[in-house]
Amino acid sequence: MSGLLEISGLTVAFGRRDTRPVLDGVELSVGEGEIVGVIGETGSGKTTLARTAVGLVAPRSGRVVFDGREISGARGRARRAFRRSGQLSYAFQDPLRALDPELTVRRAVAEPLAVAGELDGARIAARVEEALETVGLDAARLGDRLPGALSGGQRQRALLARAIVTRPRLLIADEPVSALDASNRNRVLRLLDRLRAERRMAVVVISHDLSSLAGIADRVAVLYRGRVVEQGPVHEVFGRPLHPYTALLTASAPSVRAEGGPGAAALRPSAEPPGWTAREGCVFAHRCPFVTGSCRTAPAPAAVGPHRSAACHRVDQWRELVAWTAPAATSGQAPEPAATGRAPEPAATGRAPEPAAATGEPRKEAGRVTVAPVTARPSEKG
Amino acid sequence: MPHSPSSDPATPGGPAPGPVALSVEGLGVTVSSGRLTAVRDVSFTVARGEAVGLVGESGSGKTLICRSVLGLLPPGCAVSEGEIALAGETLTGRSRREWERVRGTRVGAVFQDPASYLNPSLTVGRQLAEVLRVKLGLDRPRAGERAVELFAAVGLHDPAEVARRHPHELSGGMLQRVLIAIAVACAPDLLVADEATTALDVVVQAEVLELLARMRAEHDLALLLVSHDLAVIAEVCDRVLVAYAGELVEDGPAERVLTEPLHPYTEALLRVATVGDWERRELEVIPGAPPEVGARLPGCRFADRCAFAAPECLSGPVPLRETADGRRVRCVRSEEIDLSRAGARGTREVAV
Questions:
Q1: Cβ contact A210–B234 (<8 Å)
Q2: In the predicted structure, residue A54 carries a pLDDT above the cut 50
Q3: Domain ranges of chain A
Q4: What CATH homologous superfamily does A5-221 map to?
Q5: Do B275 and A255 touch (CB under 8 A)?
Q6: Chain A residues within 8 A of B230 when measuring between CB atoms
Q7: Interface ipTM
Q8: For residues B233 and B243, is the Cβ–Cβ distance under 8 A?
Q9: Spatial contact of A48 and A41, defined as CB atoms under 8 Å apart
Q10: pTM
Q11: Would you say residue B13 has pLDDT above 60?
């Protein structure tokens, strides 16, 4: 593995030695020109992961390697020099609070270059104009405004302009679109996609929301209580989850279209979790409907096929236990005998052959049919 | 393609709508102490047992509409026109004291940030019991018992224990359930949920939406769900109202509006909603930005962002027209344009 950013065995803990770590053995690799999504709920450690990756938080153990150089161990002068080089930049969450309310857009965007101190004023000004143009902000009209006089979408783009003004090779964006409505969200996501295409810039998008990753991420890592429970290409992970938590996430995401697959209710536990789940074992055990005694030892992330990994003891069994419901809307026009899949028992019949999960072959067809029936696109419009 | 929420017992199109719970007629709202008109000509009804979604971008006026219904407009904002009635009884023009009597008893409400609506220094059980004592006149022991029952009804585990907790000890999803318990405590006619799930994680959001749908079905509530997210509304609602720049631009049954929108703005909203569509790599945007609040525009307020705009769109205010099948749309060209070809007509913005 020789990605641009290599995070291995990263463990971060705050406070006392015996507290549960915020991040526990996280592995993540980001290649040049790649967009990797990190998804997880509040408190899952996604922001800590981003802050550790850029060196704002010191890990307890593990390594962060950027372009062959270990940056997690760098101290003092070396760390300062690396940060100021701007090769790795970080766009903070919440553009209202992350932008200095007393700096105009131009000055805020110029700050990273001014701090680096390598360019003269004229060159900095030129780079600022370039960055503002790249993110689609009208410098003449908005450049001298304060953040308070910008709309949410404009603020978010100003923050991104500031993050890319140093021409970074990797951008870590923390919830870049969660405060925006759908149209502005897509605008910002397209911008990230374009930067990746034009500059081969790698991007890590941190999000709690699946829709923020739609359409742009190549790979996704699902974080739950400090552990990466699943990782792989975005279509495979969301199309055919290997981990019950990922399945719950995708089933819970609201959609304007009818969905197939199990409802979210089928993926929530119906009984109280065993007492030990509060103290030990798999991080997801307390919310997992498929929990067994074996889950009392925490599962390590294991490769499933060449591109995916999942941390679940029951990775090739839990699917059979779900009462898959047929997508109601497609029952009339489904390309397969879908309406039969109601009972728990024939869950696998006529659907994805289970060995796909075991061998991990990228069974695209299977993944599509099982959980997200893309075939059910509204076709009556054509 | 009908969209049927899997866990919703009262499926759309199932039972016939009951008597009208809320009716809003010709509502106009002014902001900046009457200088600007932010909401105009808004009319709709919500029947008992019906779930109606109000969707729009920020600045569409959806929150002002919903605050008007609750009699909770912020200072400087006022209902300038129209009438709001609850189960046939007119509420507009009522005094503050009279509103107090209506809110909490006949109208319940849930908002985006549940923690800010609770007193941090009182247990949540006491806060719910207080509502029951003040509004329903229950005595202290009975109110305490009823509070625990209500907490159980909204799916809180170990309700007696939860009742003894302070707000800071509960998660966002639990607090939202507490708020819902308070909102339905007095068996209101109408429950208003304004961005009630926006701040929650996806998994918790799904649970709270299921709870709202269940409360609606169990109590025969009229539910007005306000959200910027069309997908959230699609999960729960029978009917969708689309707001744009202070006006309603479309109204119709959810499954029709979401599959065959009549207004170009609704169609654009649907195209930018990509959730759940992992195969799609193109991210579409609606060009331009909504007009400033109170902007005086000659005709259709969406015209400058619309791929189908024609000279007649700007000739005068566009009325909300009823179609033959009972849907409503505010577009002069809705009968001649073919929205399924919108993508091919250049609404796709090329540059970011």
A1: no
A2: yes
A3: 5-221, 242-376
A4: P-loop containing nucleotide triphosphate hydrolases (3.40.50.300)
A5: yes
A6: 182, 256
A7: 0.81
A8: no
A9: no
A10: 0.82
A11: no
